[in-house]
Amino acid sequence: MKIIVIGATGTIGSNIVRKLEEQHEVIRVGSKSGDYQLDLTSPEEIEKMYKSIDNIDAVVSATGSASFKKLEEMTPELNTVAVQSKLLGQINLVLIGQHYLNANGSFTLTTGVMMDDPIVHGSSAAMANAGVASFVKSAAIELKNGIRINSVSPTIVEESLSKYGAFFDGFNPVPVDRVSNAYIKSIAGAQTGQNYTVY
Amino acid sequence: MKIIVIGATGTIGSNIVRKLEEQHEVIRVGSKSGDYQLDLTSPEEIEKMYKSIDNIDAVVSATGSASFKKLEEMTPELNTVAVQSKLLGQINLVLIGQHYLNANGSFTLTTGVMMDDPIVHGSSAAMANAGVASFVKSAAIELKNGIRINSVSPTIVEESLSKYGAFFDGFNPVPVDRVSNAYIKSIAGAQTGQNYTVY
Fold this sequence. Notes:
2 copies of one chain form a homodimer. Chain A is an alpha/beta fold. Helices cover 38% and strands 17% of the residues of chain A. In chain A, strand 4 (58-61), helix 3 (76-97) and strand 5 (106-110) form a beta-alpha-beta unit. Chains A, B: Pfam families: adh_short_C2.
């Protein structure tokens, strides 16, 4: 399969790439590095990417930004970071990509544990994550040509503890390899409309 | 209590107003009618409303637009209707309103059944509804001064069957009065972080 991985340099993305490369052709997409550069917040850039890379079987998004702020400091403006990136960036990959993907292809997007198990500073990310998860569930019943869609909801991964661990005291970290397996299951399997929680 | 109801002329909003008026002072807010006019998509207008109406104990939002379109016809642009109105309009009522509401006040927002039980044409609304529900769950753990927050997720109401029934074949419609009770429970009760499903 020919698979696009967006967010290919991240902790999760780079692990997914490593596993997929054993069997598939992987196009690594990053905001500033990789085989192709993409500004996920721009629908025009997303359209351009799909026009530039042909014959795509699967799209994996392991990216998406959000502002982490106390609720009392969260403003409509700060909240738009998650809206434009984690929420709409990922959804636009599907709205636009549905017209380009090969038949029987798949989309796999990324949500996150805080939508189910809220953390302080996490309200904006929770909003974006849940919006993506329900969009996935709904889009799955309408996608044509056998195209499937799932999302993966990781908890904090062991490899990110030094960076983000303070937000997740008391959460049970998981090895990034377990998270990557959920993406592989989405791509290689036959399920659609699922949100795979890796908690 | 002094209670703002946004979307006061809608099928659900007008029923909530009728029930609340028996015991409370209600400020009816609409886009074009009511005691106060508000463009929910404008954070500046929301801030102006909170500056204009003092001593608020509860905010009820029974409003929010979304584009209903087949997924293959849904575009990033059409999707922004739900983002700006149902999702961010409602969330901005909280982000801004948290600094104005009376102590021990409450916010009650509106989600909807299609986030749990998807319908054709409903992917954009599903996204917005779930984003609101998870924001509510997360915001609840951070709101100060005893301020609470819940959402209500109605299914199709009997009173709207002639208008929207075709989208909801096979769903069990509920009387609008049952939906209104969920808002009353949110305002009068002590729970927070809940999404009351009325299915």
